[in-house]
Amino acid sequence: MQELLTFTIIGLSTGAIYAVVASGLVVTYTTSGIFNLAHGATGMLAAFTYWQLRFDWDLSAPLALFITLFILCPLFGLLTERIVMRGLQGTTEVVRLSVTVALFAFMIGLANTVWPSNGSREAFLKFFEGNTIHIGGINVSWHKLITFGCAVVVAIVLRLLLFRTRMGVAMRAVVDDRSLTELNGGRPNRVAMFAWALSAMLAGLAGILLAGEQQLNIEPLVLLVINAYAAAIIGGLKSLPRTFAGAAVLGLLDAYYLQFSDNSWFPQSFMGFGLSGIRASIPTIVLFVALLVRPQSRLRAGTVRFREENKVPSWNTAVLGAVSLIVVVVGISGMLTRSNTLFLLNGFTLAIVALSLVPLTGYAGQMSLAPLTFAGLGAVAMSKLPGDGNLLTLLAAITIVAIVGAAVALPAIRLSGIYLALSTAAFAVLVTKLIFNQRQTFMSGNISVPILDIPFIDINSPRGRLILSATAFSLLGLGVIALRRSRLGRRLIALKDSPVAAATLGMNLTQTKLAAFAISAGIAACAGALAGDKVSPQQYDFTQSLPIVLLAVVGGVGTVGGALFGGLLLGGNAVLANAVPSLKNITKIMPGLTGITLGRNPSGATSQISEKFRPLLNRWGIISFSALGGVGIWALDASRIISHWAFFIGGVFWFLAVMPNLIAIIDGTSQRRWWASAIALTGLAISLGVDWDQAVDSTGKRLLSLILLVAIFGVGTQRVAENAPRIHHSSPDLLGLDVALTPDELDNVERELGVTI
Amino acid sequence: MALLEIREVMVRFGGVMAVGGVDLDVQAGETTGLIGPNGAGKTTLFNVISGMQDPTAGMVSVNGVDISHESPHRRAKRGLARTFQRLELFASLTVRDNVRVAAELASLTNIDATVNRLLEKVGVSHLADKTAGELPTGSARLVEIARALATGPQLLLLDEPASGLDESESDRLGTLLRELTEDGLGVLLVEHDMSLVMRVCDSIYVLDLGMIIAHGTPEHIQHDPQVLQAYLGAPS
């Protein structure tokens, strides 16, 4: 009995931490509609900050707490809302979630940079470390008691805040009807800022309390949020009392499991699979169950219209793109060193994983946070199936994973938006904990995936594998474009644009979603099955999936080019980090930083880039000139006048910095033309003229130089060459009223309105 | 037996009775109007018919078959199609593809010809290759009708099709509706444009506070004191 009491107290104190975290999630979700995946990371940063103040700089505990919780956390929350989240209204759930993933990546990168994990540091002590109090015959630490007390105080304060203060009423009003609140003089933006500040404080409090129990490590603190998801979902992402109850249940389950699993009668394994991962999976299992018993999301008319827009490439463009990609990779792969080949190979593997999101997320609008899990299953299937890696084995692996993909989606598919995304996250975590981390699956920590065995072609070298993966990407990419142009493709888009119209026109939404999930899982499985090397479960971890989802969205998840862009960017990021240790910290933050800008450009980077090239399509002279330039640079390399690196850097510079500006240069006034040409030529001369192999000592630095060259000379050329039309920044309603329209704008307006004189 | 039969349908949202026991029939080859002040329960009733909202009680049947518990896509297969008060076009598809998706879902043969015929019929052929999200409201409403027709329905539910249409477009819509019913289609029309309703409807139901307060021909409805009271308020 006494033992039960002990574990009840332990459970309630764990539950108290979950409750504090979960209430923060609910506060921001209800007021701004953004489910903050980075909530746990906020708590982690707060815990580190508190440690810095309290234990490294020796401030007193109350002062350190005050500075962390009442100054820095609210400030961080305010800035997050103002800078990152406010631009996200009217974007899809996918983009909104990706931005929080970006924030998540950014904060982990930041923590890794400021508080590197190597080296010893002062211990993180509990509050009143070592002091206990005697309750009902057992000793309870002060820290646990304080934790429990904090949850009670948070509950009371939130209740008072929401029901007794003006701000609380405003918050509830925004939840009920945002626009009505605004019409009545409420200020939703200000309410949202307040909510984010409050939420950051709650995350910080939970992070500090948890760090006292579990020591200061980035990962457990960040993943804390997954445990809290379950509590928040039990509360329906709305009700705070139910959230607190859910948190208590979670904490108690965990504690009682701990108690019972110590008994001899408790099974240690099930069907040969060890059960050691179960305890850590409890919150995830509860989350999964809580999601599955949620009522079906109702079909509703009049939902938000989306801002993204992607053009469908014609067949000619698609085939041309696929062939050129293979040709370019074959061409440059001969020039690459072994390690660079492996990096590029990694980039293409990631690009295939990102491609798996195009039909699912880009077309059908369904969010998955588990693409790498399917890649991992693909790798396992490829290595376990008979046939030693021939084409049939590959097909079988893809088919099996596609079926698994549809099977796991089946129960979750009734859900939509954030709930669906979370259930895929829960699935990813469960697969990692209960399947990948098992002896039977990954013997001694890794397995070797056989290299694809294609008759008459030997791909048993890094170069061969690189060409194989580029070819696989091209073929799969063509397949995805073919899908988009097919009957099923139109249905996927219809499903995304208006589920309710699709259903009333006779579409079986469940079947269509299942198809999307199966196709996506199959494509991701390819990435794993083609690994052709030793792989470890860490490569397919849930946390590794997040950057891929993020960069696919950054690149443009609606397009094949976006997937390529995202995959290569992530791969290239790894090159930079490995080659230039001094840049390592920047590259850790980079994916996060890129993602945070999504709010301003939800269609992704590739659509922006391709917009720049579109005008070229009608000007044959310029196309020929561009091609000629490319051939010229290649000829310089072929005749050994310049090195491979100069070819690569010069080629990319030509493509990204010169070609998009050609029209502006030709159409510009003569003075602008000369200046712009001079800048472009200077950049080109540097790109081609520098002896990169000698002057710069590593791949990463060369890539960095390339980025700088394009940024400085490319943007410089553009700025000088363009007679940029003035852009109005005032409200569209005032267009032409506050400032007179220019003749160009007038023409434009008349064309748009169809008024031709 | 009527094409669509609604019997004692009731919808309760918490303590609010949105629809309180409605009986309504739509005959094949006729346009039936459903009018009433805002908040009367018209759209809720539409949602019940198309399967987006489960009724608290009551029955909906098409051609004598009870469909009250079928999913929306099954009802579509039984010949039900609808448009939406707030437009629900597939915004990133072209106009042609919007209609094509519907035709494909109905497994029609000869899809291209059907799509072209329908675009022609509602008068938006010239917009066929435009992205649907870029259309002005008037054209978008017509495309929604074409899309609904592409499923080859027996019963068409139109939720305020004339709002956002200018006078000539609205006239055109009236003509279109007459052509459609001549082909044997049953139409249930929710509309605020009374001149259109009075012109095209064979019979009219008036809904107020979730109850049918009058039913009859347009002439009858125009002179019904209860209707006047619901619309204009009680005479003092």
TrEMBL record, chain A:
<dbReference type="GO" id="GO:0005886">
    <property type="term" value="C:plasma membrane"/>
</dbReference>
<dbReference type="InterPro" id="IPR052157">
    <property type="entry name" value="BCAA_transport_permease"/>
</dbReference>
<dbReference type="InterPro" id="IPR001851">
    <property type="entry name" value="ABC_transp_permease"/>
</dbReference>
<feature type="transmembrane region" description="Helical">
    <location>
        <begin position="417"/>
        <end position="436"/>
    </location>
</feature>
<feature type="transmembrane region" description="Helical">
    <location>
        <begin position="314"/>
        <end position="336"/>
    </location>
</feature>
<keyword id="KW-0472">Membrane</keyword>
<keyword id="KW-1003">Cell membrane</keyword>
<dbReference type="Pfam" id="PF02653">
    <property type="entry name" value="BPD_transp_2"/>
</dbReference>
<feature type="transmembrane region" description="Helical">
    <location>
        <begin position="191"/>
        <end position="212"/>
    </location>
</feature>
<dbReference type="GO" id="GO:0006865">
    <property type="term" value="P:amino acid transport"/>
</dbReference>
<feature type="transmembrane region" description="Helical">
    <location>
        <begin position="145"/>
        <end position="162"/>
    </location>
</feature>
<feature type="transmembrane region" description="Helical">
    <location>
        <begin position="342"/>
        <end position="360"/>
    </location>
</feature>
<feature type="transmembrane region" description="Helical">
    <location>
        <begin position="6"/>
        <end position="27"/>
    </location>
</feature>
<feature type="transmembrane region" description="Helical">
    <location>
        <begin position="244"/>
        <end position="260"/>
    </location>
</feature>
<feature type="transmembrane region" description="Helical">
    <location>
        <begin position="34"/>
        <end position="53"/>
    </location>
</feature>
<keyword id="KW-1133">Transmembrane helix</keyword>
<feature type="transmembrane region" description="Helical">
    <location>
        <begin position="391"/>
        <end position="410"/>
    </location>
</feature>
<keyword id="KW-0813">Transport</keyword>
<dbReference type="InterPro" id="IPR043428">
    <property type="entry name" value="LivM-like"/>
</dbReference>
<feature type="transmembrane region" description="Helical">
    <location>
        <begin position="94"/>
        <end position="115"/>
    </location>
</feature>
<feature type="transmembrane region" description="Helical">
    <location>
        <begin position="59"/>
        <end position="79"/>
    </location>
</feature>
<keyword id="KW-0812">Transmembrane</keyword>
Automatic annotation (TrEMBL), chain B:
<keyword id="KW-0813">Transport</keyword>
<dbReference type="GO" id="GO:0005524">
    <property type="term" value="F:ATP binding"/>
</dbReference>
<protein>
    <submittedName>
        <fullName>Unannotated protein</fullName>
    </submittedName>
</protein>
<dbReference type="Pfam" id="PF00005">
    <property type="entry name" value="ABC_tran"/>
</dbReference>
<dbReference type="InterPro" id="IPR032823">
    <property type="entry name" value="BCA_ABC_TP_C"/>
</dbReference>
<dbReference type="InterPro" id="IPR051120">
    <property type="entry name" value="ABC_AA/LPS_Transport"/>
</dbReference>
<dbReference type="InterPro" id="IPR003593">
    <property type="entry name" value="AAA+_ATPase"/>
</dbReference>
<keyword id="KW-0547">Nucleotide-binding</keyword>
<dbReference type="Pfam" id="PF12399">
    <property type="entry name" value="BCA_ABC_TP_C"/>
</dbReference>
<dbReference type="InterPro" id="IPR003439">
    <property type="entry name" value="ABC_transporter-like_ATP-bd"/>
</dbReference>
<dbReference type="GO" id="GO:0005886">
    <property type="term" value="C:plasma membrane"/>
</dbReference>
<feature type="domain" description="ABC transporter">
    <location>
        <begin position="4"/>
        <end position="234"/>
    </location>
</feature>
<keyword id="KW-0067">ATP-binding</keyword>
<dbReference type="GO" id="GO:0016887">
    <property type="term" value="F:ATP hydrolysis activity"/>
</dbReference>
<dbReference type="InterPro" id="IPR027417">
    <property type="entry name" value="P-loop_NTPase"/>
</dbReference>
